[in-house]
Amino acid sequence: MTTMTMMRSSIMIDWLRRNQREVPTVELGQVLLPVVVRRHASAKRMTLRLSHDGCEVRVTIPQWGRSADALAFAQARRDWLAAQLATVSPARPVGPSTTIRFRGKDLAVHHDPKAARRPVLAESAIVLGGPEAALHGRLHRWLESEARALFAADLDHYCALADKPPPRLMLSTAKRRWGSCAPSGAIRINWRLVMAPDQVRRSVVAHEVAHLVHFDHSLRFHALLGELFEGDIKAANLWLKREGRSLYQPFG
């Protein structure tokens, strides 16, 4: 663990301990991580995972599940979580020189402790307040929230063109796929596409909507995709092939 990472972990631990009535946590050695409990109507059991950047623990539970049980579930699996955390590359600390990628542009991160905690877009920048130790996790959650809103709008647009009702939308954290369409019609889109240029993101959503009509990659599928998507599919695919890996490191 680097000196910078240890300092960041120490600050995070101090802040979370002062605020643990509001933020449930799990302690993994020298690191204290917030536990985010999410309810999903389709969930039939509790599932546990560490976020891709290692900044929080996420427990998904059925609608009828109890938050207390979710927290106990996370505590009982601290050894597994610690092993997962050990494989995560240290996150770059968010500071005065940090930039964040959003819709194909680099935005400067401006931290003002007196500002609202929720990130606010300004010209070429994003402004947010609150404790510095929690900035990384809050920016990550903001990106996911913006991703869901943009994907939903894209999905409505292309489903209307394809004469299909909008299906269930889920955010994906897949490392090898930007989107997928299940036989049930549910569509998953990788949340990291919120950082890509608009035309690249929209090309992936259009691709998955075309699968609602043709569940294959036939000539009919590609013909429909060409009708749905207003941009250059080849250019969008080339961008993902060339630049896609960079989306896994949202902060610079």
Features:
Zincin-like, single chain, alpha/beta, 252 residues, disordered N terminus, 7 helices, 3 domains, 4-stranded mixed beta sheet, 40% helix
Describe the structure.
The protein has 252 residues and is of the alpha/beta class. It has a four-stranded mixed sheet, with helices on both faces. It starts with a helix and ends in a 9-residue tail after the last helix. Helix 4 (135-162) crosses helix 5 (198-213) and helix 5 (198-213) packs across helix 7. Strand 5 and strand 6 form a beta hairpin. The chain has seven helices and eleven strands. It is 40% helix and 21% strand. It is globular. Mean pLDDT is 85; it is low at 1-13 and 15-21. The protein folds into three domains: 3-86, no CATH class; 99-134, no CATH class; 142-248, Metalloproteases ("zincins"), catalytic domain (Zincin-like, 2-Layer Sandwich), CATH 3.30.2010.
CATH architecture verdict of the largest domain: 2-Layer Sandwich
What would CATH call the class of the largest domain? Alpha Beta
CATH topology name of the largest domain: Zincin-like
**Order of helix and strand elements from N to C terminus:** HEEEEHHEEEEHEEEHHH
Taken from the alpha-carbon principal axes, the silhouette is globular
Oligomer class: single chain
Report the count of strand segments: 11
Instruction: Indicate the structural class.
Output: alpha/beta
Which sequence of strands runs across the widest sheet?
A: 1-2-4-3
Portion of residues in helices?
Answer: 25-40%
Low-confidence stretches: 1-13, 15-21
- Please indicate the percent range of residues in DSSP E strands (runs of 2 or more): 15-25%
Kindly report the average pLDDT value. 85
Radius of gyration: 20 Å
